[in-house]
Specification:
This protein is an all-alpha fold. It is built from two helices and no strands.
Length: 73
């Protein structure tokens, strides 16, 4: 049971991070403002914010190791 829960949490985090990457690279985003139920809208915003946070931390860590990761211009 706990392994399934951990796997699901990791998958959800990865999907949220993918959405953050899509938003940053293309400008497309999920229109959470069109969700009518406030609680669900807040949960969706928190979910996508978590992906943004993971993306930010990942980029920070990559910047710390310029010999391994490089930027393409």
């Amino acid at each position: 049971m706990s392994a399934t829960l951990v796997r699901s949490a990791i998958n959800l985090a990865l999907v949220s991070t993918v959405f953050a990457g899509i938003r940053r690279s293309s400008g497309y985003t999920v229109a959470t403002d069109k969700i009518e139920t406030e609680g669900i809208r807040m949960a969706a915003d928190m979910y996508f914010d978590a992906g943004e946070w993971i993306m930010d931390r990942s980029v920070e860590q990559m910047a710390r190791y310029p010999t391994v990761f490089s930027r393409k211009h």
